[in-house]
Amino acid sequence: MALSLDSKVKEILRSEEGKAVMEKWAPGASKDPRMKLVGALTYRKLLSYPESAELAPHMDEIDAELKACSR
Question: Does 70 have pLDDT greater than 90?
Answer without folding.
Answer: no
